[in-house]
Design brief:
It contains 4 helices and no strands. The protein is an all-alpha fold and 78 residues long. The N and C termini lie far apart (37 Å). 9% of the residues are buried.
């Protein structure tokens, strides 16, 4: 099951090998953006796409943190 998720996010092979609807859904996952930005950093080829990846990861982290904080406050207050 983990291997399917990793391959879905483009860890083992490029998303271009997947059907269009699957690659579009995989593009939304934070794992895909993390893999893409790390690959660019290791290869020494960061570009504009890397900035998009980092921005996407930052937005996902802020959103997840806000949702976690909201949930924690709701449980602590009630």
């Amino acid at each position: 099951r983990r291997v399917l998720f990793r391959s879905f996010a483009g860890v083992f092979f490029p998303l271009t090998q997947l059907p269009a609807w699957v690659s579009g859904a995989a593009w939304l996952t934070p794992l895909n953006h993390g893999v893409s930005s790390i690959r660019a950093a290791i290869a020494g080829t960061p570009d504009g796409g890397t900035l998009v990846d980092v921005a996407w990861l930052t937005a996902a982290a802020v959103l997840a943190g806000a949702l976690a904080l909201r949930s924690m406050r709701a449980r602590l207050i009630t």
